[in-house]
Design goal:
232 residues, alpha/beta, 9 helices, 8 strands, 43% helix, globular, binds pyridoxal-5'-phosphate
Length: 232
């Protein structure tokens, strides 16, 4: 695989993010691109770095481990964006800088315990199932604040915001509703929970990142639009 088109693709994406920020009266510096390198070789990480990107995302622990091994732990900030099983948490812990997919109290308890053992602090975003689709994991909007209250009390774990995935639909209004709902939940969590740090909203993928930026995203997770279609 060759990534010679990445700089031009990235320039176009940055321009669109800039336009979306203008429409929403936001400074573009608030938006960080997480280059989603899953299924691509470590060369994609190096190409992303060379193009000026400093954040890469992987959705599986095994692949994250391989990529970190090849590209280097300090090559980029590593984001774990896919579901993390509790029995893989120990292996994953030293590999990521930010977990986007904290989706249960039990996972939070496990991460807290491992962080204390390792003498480190885990940084994570709570995943919200804003659309209510059954296929999606994450906290329902109704249960989120109570769950966050418990999670934020755990030592060794710092919750720095929320993540959501838009519903699978072409209906732009439903996509936008999921994003704006997640933004309002972040505001509510910040009001009610002093230990919650409302730094991030991880929202937006290749086909919906402009709407996500207009609705307040600070981390857009982009794969296809930067690296091309993934092999099945
Ligand atoms: C694969 C993936 C992305 C990137 O998807 P694209 O449509 O290729 O941009 C973003 N977020 C998560 C959680 C993913 O698994």
């Amino acid at each position: 695989m060759e990534y010679s088109s990445l700089p031009a693709r990235l320039a176009r994406v940055r321009e669109r993010i800039g336009d979306a920020c203008l429409r929403a009266s936001r400074p573009p510096e608030e938006v960080t691109i997480v280059a989603v390198t899953k299924t691509h070789p470590a060369a994609a990480v190096l190409a992303a770095r060379a193009a000026g990107l400093r954040d890469c995302g992987e959705n599986r622990v095994q692949e994250l481990e391989e990529k970190v091994g090849e590209a280097g732990r300090d090559a980029v900030r590593w984001h774990l964006i896919g579901q993390l099983q509790r029995n893989k948490a120990r292996r994953a812990l030293p590999l990521f800088d930010l977990l986007h997919s904290l989706d249960s109290l039990r996972l939070a308890q496990r991460l807290s315990q491992l962080a204390l053992e390792a003498g480190t602090e885990v940084h994570a975003l709570a995943q919200v199932n804003a659309s209510g689709e059954e296929s999606k994991s994450g906290f329902s909007p109704e249960e989120l604040i109570d769950a966050l209250g418990e999670i934020c009390a755990l030592p060794g774990l710092r919750v720095e915001g929320l993540m959501t995935m838009a519903p699978f639909t072409d209906d732009e209004r439903r996509v936008r509703d999921a994003f704006s709902r997640t933004r309002r939940l972040r505001e509510e969590a910040a009001r009610q929970l002093p230990a919650f740090r409302p730094l991030h909203l991880s929202m937006g993928m290749s086909n919906d990142y402009e709407a996500a930026v207009e609705e307040g995203s600070t981390l857009v997770r982009l794969g296809t639009i930067l690296f091309g279609e993934r092999e099945a």
